[in-house]
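Per your request, structure below.
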């Protein structure tokens, strides 16, 4: 049995793609998963599965959401080991920052620096980003909503062919906690 976090992209934002968390819990339970919990309303669910891997579980949940709710939602599924490693590898001083200043964008596949070649890091200072294992760390001192760098990083050329979804540092660390063995 492995505990996973499902990260859903773009639900319950601005009245679009409404997916109540109670319905998401019911859906995951109906798929045969146990220990189902959700975190916030923005698309995080934790569950235990005794079959499949992260990719097959994400595909299964994507299909189930589309069948049940009638819209397509990008889903990433990650296990505790991965989530913990991403948090531990943060290149910024997370303990010294406010959660709104630090974000992780999770990607469905590895990303290489060439995707970001047209972004001039100096033009966005003091904002910064660093690449990790299928993720990107973003330091935005004024928060994501005011970040010009976040806007540049979300360009279709950069995310083409990938599922990408971002979480603030509070959510990053909470998902590590919720997926920990015995949590």
């Amino acid at each position: 049995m492995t505990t996973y976090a499902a990260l859903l992209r773009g639900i319950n934002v601005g009245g679009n793609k409404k997916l109540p968390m109670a319905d998401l819990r019911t859906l995951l339970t109906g798929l045969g998963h146990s220990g189902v919990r959700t975190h916030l309303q923005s698309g995080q669910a934790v569950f235990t599965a005794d079959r499949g891997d992260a990719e097959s579980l994400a595909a299964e949940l994507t299909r189930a959401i589309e069948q049940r709710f009638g819209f397509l939602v990008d889903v990433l599924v990650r296990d505790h080991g991965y989530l913990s490693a991403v948090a531990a590898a943060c290149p910024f001083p997370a303990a010294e920052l406010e959660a709104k200043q630090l974000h992780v964008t999770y990607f469905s596949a590895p990303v290489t620096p060439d995707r970001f070649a047209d972004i001039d890091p100096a033009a966005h200072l003091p904002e910064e980003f660093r690449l990790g294992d299928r993720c990107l760390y973003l330091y935005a001192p004024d928060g994501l909503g005011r970040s010009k760098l976040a806007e540049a990083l979300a360009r279709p050329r950069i995310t083409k062919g990938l599922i990408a979804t971002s979480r603030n540092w509070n959510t990053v660390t909470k998902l590590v906690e919720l997926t920990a063995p015995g949590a």
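Strands lie at 2-8, 34-39, 44-49, 75-79, 102-107, 128-132, 135-139, 164-168.

Regards,
D.
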